[in-house]
Write a structure and sequence with these properties.
The structure is a single chain. The chain is 34% helix and 12% strand. By secondary structure, it is α/β, with parallel strands linked by helices. It folds into two domains: 43-260, no CATH class; 265-322 and 330-445, Rossmann fold (3-Layer(aba) Sandwich), CATH 3.40.50. It has helices at 13-17, 30-34, 48-64, 69-79, 88-91, 107-124, 136-139, 171-176, 180-185, 200-203, 229-232, 239-245, 252-260, 265-279, 300-312, 346-357, 382-396, 408-417; strands at residues 98-102, 127-130, 190-193, 219-223, 284-289, 335-341, 365-369, 400-404, 422-424, 437-439, 453-454, 459-460, 470-472, 480-482. It is built from 18 helices and 14 strands. Helix 6 (107-124) packs across helix 18 (408-417). The structure holds guanosine-5'-diphosphate. It is found in: Golgi apparatus, Golgi stack membrane.
Protein backbone atom coordinates (compact mmCIF):
# COMPACT_ATOMS: atom_id res chain seq x y z
CA UNK A 1 0.00 0.00 0.00
CA UNK A 2 1.04 3.60 -0.35
CA UNK A 3 1.68 3.80 3.37
CA UNK A 4 4.50 1.27 3.07
CA UNK A 5 6.23 3.05 0.22
CA UNK A 6 9.48 4.98 0.74
CA UNK A 7 7.45 8.15 0.07
CA UNK A 8 5.49 7.77 3.26
CA UNK A 9 5.70 10.25 6.06
CA UNK A 10 3.49 10.44 9.13
CA UNK A 11 1.45 13.53 8.38
CA UNK A 12 1.66 16.29 5.86
CA UNK A 13 2.53 19.76 7.00
CA UNK A 14 -0.97 20.78 6.10
CA UNK A 15 -2.37 18.22 8.49
CA UNK A 16 -0.06 19.48 11.20
CA UNK A 17 -0.96 23.04 10.50
CA UNK A 18 -4.71 22.82 10.46
CA UNK A 19 -7.29 21.46 12.80
CA UNK A 20 -9.92 21.01 10.16
CA UNK A 21 -8.42 18.07 8.27
CA UNK A 22 -11.26 15.80 9.04
CA UNK A 23 -13.94 18.36 8.38
CA UNK A 24 -13.07 18.91 4.73
CA UNK A 25 -14.04 16.60 1.94
CA UNK A 26 -10.76 14.88 1.12
CA UNK A 27 -11.90 14.08 -2.42
CA UNK A 28 -12.35 17.73 -3.36
CA UNK A 29 -8.64 18.42 -3.07
CA UNK A 30 -6.65 15.20 -3.16
CA UNK A 31 -3.25 16.87 -3.21
CA UNK A 32 -3.85 18.39 0.21
CA UNK A 33 -4.00 14.92 1.73
CA UNK A 34 -1.87 12.85 -0.60
CA UNK A 35 1.12 14.99 -1.48
CA UNK A 36 2.96 13.85 1.65
CA UNK A 37 3.02 10.32 0.27
CA UNK A 38 5.00 11.58 -2.70
CA UNK A 39 7.76 13.15 -0.67
CA UNK A 40 10.51 11.29 1.06
CA UNK A 41 10.71 13.62 4.02
CA UNK A 42 9.98 17.18 5.05
CA UNK A 43 13.04 19.31 4.34
CA UNK A 44 12.01 21.73 7.12
CA UNK A 45 9.42 21.54 9.88
CA UNK A 46 7.09 24.35 10.88
CA UNK A 47 7.65 25.96 14.27
CA UNK A 48 4.89 25.72 16.86
CA UNK A 49 4.50 29.47 16.62
CA UNK A 50 4.00 29.32 12.85
CA UNK A 51 1.31 26.68 13.25
CA UNK A 52 -0.44 28.77 15.87
CA UNK A 53 -0.32 31.89 13.69
CA UNK A 54 -1.60 29.96 10.66
CA UNK A 55 -4.60 28.80 12.65
CA UNK A 56 -5.30 32.32 13.79
CA UNK A 57 -5.01 33.51 10.24
CA UNK A 58 -7.43 30.86 8.98
CA UNK A 59 -9.91 32.11 11.58
CA UNK A 60 -9.38 35.68 10.39
CA UNK A 61 -10.04 34.71 6.78
CA UNK A 62 -13.24 32.95 7.85
CA UNK A 63 -14.40 35.85 10.02
CA UNK A 64 -13.67 38.58 7.46
CA UNK A 65 -13.53 36.89 4.04
CA UNK A 66 -15.96 37.26 1.14
CA UNK A 67 -19.55 36.54 2.12
CA UNK A 68 -19.15 37.72 5.71
CA UNK A 69 -20.77 40.81 7.18
CA UNK A 70 -17.37 42.30 7.81
CA UNK A 71 -16.43 41.93 4.16
CA UNK A 72 -19.69 43.46 3.00
CA UNK A 73 -19.22 46.45 5.29
CA UNK A 74 -15.66 47.00 4.10
CA UNK A 75 -16.66 46.63 0.44
CA UNK A 76 -19.62 48.98 0.93
CA UNK A 77 -17.32 51.70 2.21
CA UNK A 78 -15.11 51.20 -0.79
CA UNK A 79 -18.14 51.48 -3.07
CA UNK A 80 -19.67 54.55 -1.46
CA UNK A 81 -16.43 56.46 -1.04
CA UNK A 82 -16.47 60.10 -2.17
CA UNK A 83 -13.37 62.16 -2.85
CA UNK A 84 -14.46 64.95 -0.48
CA UNK A 85 -12.51 63.75 2.52
CA UNK A 86 -15.54 63.21 4.79
CA UNK A 87 -15.29 59.44 4.71
CA UNK A 88 -12.48 58.87 7.09
CA UNK A 89 -14.55 58.34 10.20
CA UNK A 90 -16.31 55.45 8.52
CA UNK A 91 -13.09 53.55 8.18
CA UNK A 92 -12.63 53.28 11.90
CA UNK A 93 -15.80 51.20 12.15
CA UNK A 94 -14.60 48.54 9.76
CA UNK A 95 -13.34 45.68 11.85
CA UNK A 96 -11.24 43.84 9.29
CA UNK A 97 -8.40 44.93 7.07
CA UNK A 98 -7.62 43.52 3.66
CA UNK A 99 -4.72 42.97 1.31
CA UNK A 100 -5.70 42.51 -2.32
CA UNK A 101 -2.90 41.09 -4.41
CA UNK A 102 -2.86 41.71 -8.12
CA UNK A 103 -0.57 38.98 -9.45
CA UNK A 104 0.68 39.18 -13.03
CA UNK A 105 3.21 37.76 -15.50
CA UNK A 106 3.95 34.01 -15.46
CA UNK A 107 2.79 31.42 -12.97
CA UNK A 108 6.16 31.24 -11.23
CA UNK A 109 6.01 34.99 -10.66
CA UNK A 110 2.44 34.64 -9.37
CA UNK A 111 3.33 31.92 -6.88
CA UNK A 112 6.24 33.89 -5.43
CA UNK A 113 4.07 37.00 -5.16
CA UNK A 114 1.26 35.07 -3.47
CA UNK A 115 3.59 33.53 -0.89
CA UNK A 116 5.12 36.94 -0.13
CA UNK A 117 1.75 38.68 0.13
CA UNK A 118 0.52 35.93 2.44
CA UNK A 119 3.44 36.45 4.80
CA UNK A 120 2.83 40.20 4.80
CA UNK A 121 -0.88 39.58 5.48
CA UNK A 122 0.02 37.25 8.34
CA UNK A 123 2.39 39.80 9.85
CA UNK A 124 -0.11 42.64 9.63
CA UNK A 125 -3.36 40.76 10.35
CA UNK A 126 -4.86 41.41 6.95
CA UNK A 127 -7.21 39.15 5.04
CA UNK A 128 -5.51 38.11 1.81
CA UNK A 129 -7.54 38.14 -1.39
CA UNK A 130 -6.35 37.59 -4.95
CA UNK A 131 -7.50 39.31 -8.07
CA UNK A 132 -8.82 36.39 -10.10
CA UNK A 133 -7.87 37.43 -13.61
CA UNK A 134 -5.68 34.38 -14.12
CA UNK A 135 -6.42 30.68 -14.02
CA UNK A 136 -5.92 30.74 -10.26
CA UNK A 137 -9.23 29.16 -9.28
CA UNK A 138 -8.73 26.30 -11.76
CA UNK A 139 -5.27 25.29 -10.66
CA UNK A 140 -5.16 25.79 -6.89
CA UNK A 141 -7.47 24.54 -4.17
CA UNK A 142 -8.53 27.10 -1.60
CA UNK A 143 -5.94 26.95 1.19
CA UNK A 144 -8.15 28.22 4.01
CA UNK A 145 -10.99 25.89 4.82
CA UNK A 146 -14.32 27.66 4.94
CA UNK A 147 -13.07 30.88 3.33
CA UNK A 148 -12.16 31.90 -0.20
CA UNK A 149 -8.93 33.68 -1.05
CA UNK A 150 -10.33 34.84 -4.39
CA UNK A 151 -11.59 38.38 -4.76
CA UNK A 152 -15.35 38.40 -5.46
CA UNK A 153 -16.27 39.33 -9.05
CA UNK A 154 -18.21 42.39 -7.91
CA UNK A 155 -15.27 43.99 -6.11
CA UNK A 156 -15.86 47.76 -6.24
CA UNK A 157 -12.43 48.71 -7.65
CA UNK A 158 -12.34 47.69 -11.30
CA UNK A 159 -9.44 47.04 -13.68
CA UNK A 160 -7.00 46.19 -10.94
CA UNK A 161 -4.52 44.97 -13.52
CA UNK A 162 -4.24 48.52 -14.87
CA UNK A 163 -3.31 50.15 -11.56
CA UNK A 164 0.15 51.71 -11.59
CA UNK A 165 2.27 53.61 -9.14
CA UNK A 166 1.07 56.82 -10.77
CA UNK A 167 -2.35 56.69 -9.08
CA UNK A 168 -2.95 59.22 -6.31
CA UNK A 169 -3.56 56.38 -3.85
CA UNK A 170 -0.09 54.93 -4.32
CA UNK A 171 2.12 54.49 -1.30
CA UNK A 172 4.90 56.27 -3.17
CA UNK A 173 2.78 59.39 -3.45
CA UNK A 174 1.52 59.21 0.12
CA UNK A 175 4.96 59.10 1.71
CA UNK A 176 5.99 62.14 -0.25
CA UNK A 177 3.26 64.24 1.34
CA UNK A 178 3.98 66.18 4.49
CA UNK A 179 1.55 64.36 6.71
CA UNK A 180 1.30 60.83 5.39
CA UNK A 181 -0.32 59.35 8.50
CA UNK A 182 -3.33 61.64 8.21
CA UNK A 183 -3.73 61.12 4.51
CA UNK A 184 -4.01 57.34 4.70
CA UNK A 185 -7.33 57.38 6.49
CA UNK A 186 -8.99 59.68 3.96
CA UNK A 187 -7.91 57.58 1.00
CA UNK A 188 -10.25 55.09 -0.56
CA UNK A 189 -7.43 52.55 -0.47
CA UNK A 190 -3.66 52.51 -0.53
CA UNK A 191 -1.96 51.01 -3.55
CA UNK A 192 1.45 49.46 -3.06
CA UNK A 193 3.32 49.21 -6.32
CA UNK A 194 6.20 46.76 -6.19
CA UNK A 195 6.61 46.33 -9.93
CA UNK A 196 10.12 46.43 -11.44
CA UNK A 197 9.37 49.97 -12.55
CA UNK A 198 8.45 51.17 -9.04
CA UNK A 199 10.25 54.14 -7.55
CA UNK A 200 12.48 54.79 -4.57
CA UNK A 201 9.41 56.11 -2.70
CA UNK A 202 7.30 53.04 -3.51
CA UNK A 203 10.05 50.88 -2.07
CA UNK A 204 9.96 52.74 1.23
CA UNK A 205 7.01 50.39 1.81
CA UNK A 206 9.64 47.84 2.83
CA UNK A 207 10.62 50.06 5.76
CA UNK A 208 7.05 50.86 6.75
CA UNK A 209 5.88 50.25 10.27
CA UNK A 210 2.31 49.32 9.45
CA UNK A 211 1.22 50.07 13.03
CA UNK A 212 2.01 53.74 12.63
CA UNK A 213 0.86 54.28 9.10
CA UNK A 214 -0.74 51.62 6.97
CA UNK A 215 -2.73 50.17 9.86
CA UNK A 216 -5.25 52.94 9.19
CA UNK A 217 -5.96 51.74 5.66
CA UNK A 218 -8.77 49.19 5.48
CA UNK A 219 -7.86 48.30 1.92
CA UNK A 220 -4.34 47.72 0.74
CA UNK A 221 -4.02 46.87 -2.93
CA UNK A 222 -0.70 45.51 -4.07
CA UNK A 223 0.89 44.84 -7.42
CA UNK A 224 3.94 42.61 -7.43
CA UNK A 225 5.25 39.76 -9.51
CA UNK A 226 7.99 38.53 -7.26
CA UNK A 227 9.34 37.30 -3.97
CA UNK A 228 9.69 40.18 -1.53
CA UNK A 229 10.12 38.18 1.68
CA UNK A 230 13.86 39.00 2.05
CA UNK A 231 12.93 42.70 2.32
CA UNK A 232 10.52 41.95 5.18
CA UNK A 233 13.45 40.42 7.04
CA UNK A 234 15.27 43.76 6.75
CA UNK A 235 12.45 45.71 8.38
CA UNK A 236 13.07 46.06 12.16
CA UNK A 237 9.30 46.05 12.76
CA UNK A 238 8.96 42.40 11.84
CA UNK A 239 12.26 41.06 13.08
CA UNK A 240 11.13 39.55 16.35
CA UNK A 241 8.01 37.93 14.94
CA UNK A 242 9.86 36.54 11.92
CA UNK A 243 12.47 35.03 14.23
CA UNK A 244 9.73 33.21 16.09
CA UNK A 245 7.87 32.13 12.96
CA UNK A 246 10.98 30.94 11.15
CA UNK A 247 13.82 29.87 13.44
CA UNK A 248 15.40 28.49 10.24
CA UNK A 249 15.61 31.43 7.89
CA UNK A 250 15.95 29.35 4.73
CA UNK A 251 12.63 27.60 5.31
CA UNK A 252 10.24 30.45 4.56
CA UNK A 253 9.20 29.73 1.00
CA UNK A 254 9.27 25.98 1.52
CA UNK A 255 6.89 26.10 4.48
CA UNK A 256 4.59 28.77 3.08
CA UNK A 257 4.37 27.02 -0.28
CA UNK A 258 3.49 23.71 1.33
CA UNK A 259 0.83 25.39 3.37
CA UNK A 260 -0.69 27.48 0.56
CA UNK A 261 -0.36 25.75 -2.77
CA UNK A 262 -2.40 22.61 -3.29
CA UNK A 263 -2.97 21.74 -6.94
CA UNK A 264 -6.58 21.01 -7.90
CA UNK A 265 -7.50 17.41 -8.68
CA UNK A 266 -7.02 17.92 -12.43
CA UNK A 267 -3.46 19.19 -11.92
CA UNK A 268 -2.81 16.55 -9.28
CA UNK A 269 -3.80 13.94 -11.88
CA UNK A 270 -1.20 15.35 -14.27
CA UNK A 271 1.41 15.26 -11.52
CA UNK A 272 0.77 11.80 -10.14
CA UNK A 273 0.29 10.04 -13.47
CA UNK A 274 3.57 11.43 -14.74
CA UNK A 275 5.38 10.72 -11.50
CA UNK A 276 4.08 7.16 -11.22
CA UNK A 277 4.86 6.39 -14.87
CA UNK A 278 8.29 7.94 -15.29
CA UNK A 279 9.86 8.87 -11.99
CA UNK A 280 8.79 6.62 -9.15
CA UNK A 281 10.61 3.45 -10.23
CA UNK A 282 14.07 4.99 -10.62
CA UNK A 283 16.88 4.81 -8.12
CA UNK A 284 17.51 8.53 -8.48
CA UNK A 285 15.75 11.50 -10.02
CA UNK A 286 17.44 14.58 -11.49
CA UNK A 287 15.46 17.66 -12.52
CA UNK A 288 16.74 20.00 -15.23
CA UNK A 289 14.74 23.18 -15.72
CA UNK A 290 15.52 25.01 -18.92
CA UNK A 291 14.32 28.59 -19.22
CA UNK A 292 15.67 30.72 -22.05
CA UNK A 293 15.07 34.45 -21.97
CA UNK A 294 16.59 35.26 -25.37
CA UNK A 295 13.83 33.74 -27.51
CA UNK A 296 12.01 30.48 -28.02
CA UNK A 297 14.35 29.05 -30.68
CA UNK A 298 16.91 26.48 -29.49
CA UNK A 299 20.44 27.66 -28.77
CA UNK A 300 23.53 25.48 -28.97
CA UNK A 301 25.26 27.43 -26.19
CA UNK A 302 22.42 26.61 -23.77
CA UNK A 303 22.69 22.90 -24.55
CA UNK A 304 26.46 23.18 -24.05
CA UNK A 305 25.85 24.86 -20.71
CA UNK A 306 23.48 22.13 -19.49
CA UNK A 307 25.93 19.40 -20.51
CA UNK A 308 28.90 21.22 -18.98
CA UNK A 309 27.06 21.80 -15.72
CA UNK A 310 25.76 18.25 -15.29
CA UNK A 311 29.17 16.83 -16.19
CA UNK A 312 31.29 19.11 -13.97
CA UNK A 313 28.99 18.65 -11.01
CA UNK A 314 28.74 14.87 -11.57
CA UNK A 315 25.00 15.02 -11.87
CA UNK A 316 24.89 12.94 -15.05
CA UNK A 317 27.33 10.16 -16.00
CA UNK A 318 29.78 10.40 -18.87
CA UNK A 319 29.17 8.27 -21.93
CA UNK A 320 31.66 5.91 -23.61
CA UNK A 321 32.45 5.88 -27.30
CA UNK A 322 32.91 2.10 -27.57
CA UNK A 323 29.93 -0.20 -27.28
CA UNK A 324 30.58 -2.05 -23.98
CA UNK A 325 30.27 -5.83 -23.65
CA UNK A 326 26.69 -6.62 -22.79
CA UNK A 327 26.02 -6.65 -19.06
CA UNK A 328 24.81 -9.81 -17.48
CA UNK A 329 21.05 -10.06 -17.61
CA UNK A 330 20.81 -10.91 -13.92
CA UNK A 331 22.18 -7.69 -12.44
CA UNK A 332 19.92 -4.71 -12.80
CA UNK A 333 21.61 -1.48 -13.80
CA UNK A 334 21.18 1.46 -11.46
CA UNK A 335 18.60 3.76 -12.98
CA UNK A 336 18.50 7.52 -13.15
CA UNK A 337 15.42 9.38 -14.33
CA UNK A 338 16.00 12.84 -15.73
CA UNK A 339 12.99 15.13 -15.68
CA UNK A 340 13.47 18.01 -18.06
CA UNK A 341 11.15 20.99 -18.35
CA UNK A 342 11.17 23.75 -20.91
CA UNK A 343 9.16 25.44 -23.60
CA UNK A 344 11.28 23.78 -26.30
CA UNK A 345 11.84 20.04 -26.71
CA UNK A 346 15.16 20.45 -28.50
CA UNK A 347 17.39 20.29 -25.39
CA UNK A 348 15.52 17.24 -24.15
CA UNK A 349 15.77 15.50 -27.55
CA UNK A 350 19.53 16.05 -27.59
CA UNK A 351 20.16 14.79 -24.08
CA UNK A 352 17.91 11.81 -24.54
CA UNK A 353 19.74 10.94 -27.77
CA UNK A 354 23.09 11.25 -26.00
CA UNK A 355 22.08 8.49 -23.56
CA UNK A 356 20.34 6.40 -26.17
CA UNK A 357 23.20 6.60 -28.62
CA UNK A 358 25.92 5.68 -26.14
CA UNK A 359 26.33 3.65 -22.99
CA UNK A 360 27.24 5.34 -19.74
CA UNK A 361 30.70 4.93 -18.25
CA UNK A 362 29.11 3.98 -14.94
CA UNK A 363 26.74 1.40 -16.40
CA UNK A 364 23.77 3.43 -15.17
CA UNK A 365 20.61 3.47 -17.24
CA UNK A 366 19.65 7.10 -17.87
CA UNK A 367 16.11 7.80 -18.99
CA UNK A 368 15.16 11.32 -20.01
CA UNK A 369 11.62 12.70 -19.97
CA UNK A 370 9.91 15.99 -20.61
CA UNK A 371 6.18 16.30 -19.87
CA UNK A 372 5.39 19.07 -22.37
CA UNK A 373 6.91 21.55 -24.78
CA UNK A 374 4.51 24.44 -25.12
CA UNK A 375 6.89 26.37 -27.45
CA UNK A 376 5.59 29.77 -26.27
CA UNK A 377 4.53 31.28 -22.97
CA UNK A 378 0.72 31.58 -22.80
CA UNK A 379 0.19 32.55 -19.18
CA UNK A 380 -3.43 32.87 -18.09
CA UNK A 381 -4.72 30.03 -20.26
CA UNK A 382 -5.89 27.29 -17.97
CA UNK A 383 -4.47 24.22 -19.71
CA UNK A 384 -1.13 25.97 -20.25
CA UNK A 385 -0.95 27.04 -16.60
CA UNK A 386 -2.00 23.59 -15.43
CA UNK A 387 0.96 22.07 -17.26
CA UNK A 388 3.27 24.75 -15.87
CA UNK A 389 2.15 24.04 -12.31
CA UNK A 390 2.36 20.28 -12.81
CA UNK A 391 5.91 20.64 -14.07
CA UNK A 392 7.05 22.93 -11.26
CA UNK A 393 5.57 20.40 -8.85
CA UNK A 394 7.25 17.45 -10.60
CA UNK A 395 10.58 19.27 -10.45
CA UNK A 396 10.04 19.58 -6.71
CA UNK A 397 9.75 15.79 -6.46
CA UNK A 398 13.26 15.14 -7.76
CA UNK A 399 16.32 14.38 -5.61
CA UNK A 400 18.66 16.92 -7.23
CA UNK A 401 17.87 19.84 -9.45
CA UNK A 402 19.55 22.09 -11.99
CA UNK A 403 17.71 25.36 -12.68
CA UNK A 404 18.06 28.33 -14.99
CA UNK A 405 19.15 31.55 -13.29
CA UNK A 406 16.64 34.42 -13.11
CA UNK A 407 13.69 32.06 -13.57
CA UNK A 408 10.86 32.21 -11.05
CA UNK A 409 9.60 28.92 -12.53
CA UNK A 410 12.86 27.35 -11.39
CA UNK A 411 12.70 29.03 -7.97
CA UNK A 412 9.31 27.47 -7.34
CA UNK A 413 10.52 24.07 -8.52
CA UNK A 414 13.44 23.88 -6.12
CA UNK A 415 11.84 25.92 -3.33
CA UNK A 416 8.78 23.71 -3.14
CA UNK A 417 11.02 20.65 -3.15
CA UNK A 418 13.23 21.90 -0.33
CA UNK A 419 16.09 21.42 -2.79
CA UNK A 420 19.22 23.54 -2.95
CA UNK A 421 19.70 23.85 -6.70
CA UNK A 422 22.63 24.02 -9.04
CA UNK A 423 21.89 27.30 -10.79
CA UNK A 424 22.93 27.81 -14.39
CA UNK A 425 24.03 31.41 -14.80
CA UNK A 426 22.25 33.42 -17.41
CA UNK A 427 24.35 33.47 -20.62
CA UNK A 428 25.56 36.80 -22.02
CA UNK A 429 26.33 37.44 -25.69
CA UNK A 430 25.09 33.95 -26.61
CA UNK A 431 27.98 32.29 -24.83
CA UNK A 432 27.79 29.62 -22.14
CA UNK A 433 29.25 31.15 -18.97
CA UNK A 434 32.22 29.62 -17.19
CA UNK A 435 31.57 28.08 -14.74
CA UNK A 436 28.27 27.01 -16.26
CA UNK A 437 26.53 26.62 -12.92
CA UNK A 438 27.06 26.73 -9.20
CA UNK A 439 25.41 25.16 -6.16
CA UNK A 440 23.20 27.75 -4.50
CA UNK A 441 23.58 28.86 -0.88
CA UNK A 442 20.03 27.95 0.03
CA UNK A 443 16.72 26.65 -1.24
CA UNK A 444 15.10 30.10 -1.09
CA UNK A 445 13.97 32.08 -4.14
CA UNK A 446 15.77 35.27 -5.12
CA UNK A 447 14.16 38.69 -4.76
CA UNK A 448 14.80 40.50 -8.04
CA UNK A 449 13.91 44.11 -7.24
CA UNK A 450 15.17 44.67 -3.68
CA UNK A 451 15.34 47.98 -1.85
CA UNK A 452 18.74 49.64 -1.51
CA UNK A 453 17.83 51.38 1.71
CA UNK A 454 18.69 50.72 5.33
CA UNK A 455 15.49 51.14 7.38
CA UNK A 456 17.41 51.70 10.64
CA UNK A 457 20.05 54.11 9.38
CA UNK A 458 17.51 55.78 7.07
CA UNK A 459 19.95 55.98 4.21
CA UNK A 460 21.02 54.09 1.13
CA UNK A 461 22.90 50.87 1.79
CA UNK A 462 24.01 47.57 0.33
CA UNK A 463 21.06 45.56 1.62
CA UNK A 464 22.93 42.30 1.05
CA UNK A 465 25.27 43.26 3.89
CA UNK A 466 22.90 44.34 6.67
CA UNK A 467 22.04 41.02 8.33
CA UNK A 468 23.79 37.65 7.97
CA UNK A 469 20.72 35.77 6.72
CA UNK A 470 19.91 38.15 3.83
CA UNK A 471 22.58 37.91 1.13
CA UNK A 472 22.96 38.58 -2.57
CA UNK A 473 21.76 35.86 -4.94
CA UNK A 474 24.04 33.61 -6.96
CA UNK A 475 22.27 34.32 -10.24
CA UNK A 476 21.55 38.04 -9.86
CA UNK A 477 24.23 40.11 -8.16
CA UNK A 478 21.86 42.81 -6.87
CA UNK A 479 19.08 40.37 -5.86
CA UNK A 480 18.52 39.26 -2.26
CA UNK A 481 17.83 35.88 -0.78
CA UNK A 482 17.48 34.29 2.62
CA UNK A 483 20.18 31.83 3.54
P1 LIG B 1 9.96 32.87 -15.42
O1 LIG B 1 9.51 33.74 -16.55
O2 LIG B 1 10.95 31.85 -15.83
O3 LIG B 1 10.41 33.68 -14.24
O4 LIG B 1 8.71 31.98 -14.92
P2 LIG B 1 7.15 32.22 -14.96
O5 LIG B 1 6.52 30.94 -14.54
O6 LIG B 1 6.77 33.43 -14.19
O7 LIG B 1 6.78 32.53 -16.47
C1 LIG B 1 7.12 31.64 -17.49
C2 LIG B 1 5.87 30.97 -18.06
O8 LIG B 1 6.21 30.40 -19.33
C3 LIG B 1 5.39 29.81 -17.21
O9 LIG B 1 4.51 30.17 -16.20
C4 LIG B 1 4.74 28.94 -18.26
O10 LIG B 1 3.52 29.50 -18.61
C5 LIG B 1 5.72 29.10 -19.41
N1 LIG B 1 6.86 28.19 -19.25
C6 LIG B 1 8.15 28.51 -19.10
N2 LIG B 1 8.90 27.39 -18.94
C7 LIG B 1 8.04 26.36 -18.97
C8 LIG B 1 8.20 24.94 -18.85
O11 LIG B 1 9.29 24.42 -18.65
N3 LIG B 1 7.08 24.18 -18.93
C9 LIG B 1 5.85 24.73 -19.10
N4 LIG B 1 4.80 23.93 -19.16
N5 LIG B 1 5.66 26.06 -19.23
C10 LIG B 1 6.74 26.86 -19.17
Amino acid sequence: SRRDSPWTMPASFWQLATTSTRQGNSRSCLSRYNSAFYRKKMARSPSAHLIKRLREHEALQRRCGPGTEAYMAAAARLRSWHPNGTNHRDYTHVSCKYLVLVPYRGLGNNILAMASAFLYALLTDRVLLHDRTTSLGDIFCEPFQGASWLLPHHFPVKNLQNLTGNVQESYGHLVQRNDPAASVSVRRYVFVDLDHSCTYHDKLFFCDDHRRFLDRATWLLMRTDGYFVPALFLNPTYQEELDRLFPQKDAVFYLLAHYLFHPTNKVWGLITRFHDSYMRGSDERLGIQVRVFDGDTPFQHILDQILACTSREHLLPEVVTQEPPHPSTTSRARSKAVLMTGLSSWYYENIRWKYWQSATATGEAVSVYQPSHEEHQLSGYTTHDMKALAEMYLLSMTDKIVTSGWSTFGYVGHGLGGLTPWIMFRPENHTAPDPPCRRAKSMEPCMHGPPFYDCRAKQGADTGKLVPHVQHCEDMSWGLKLV
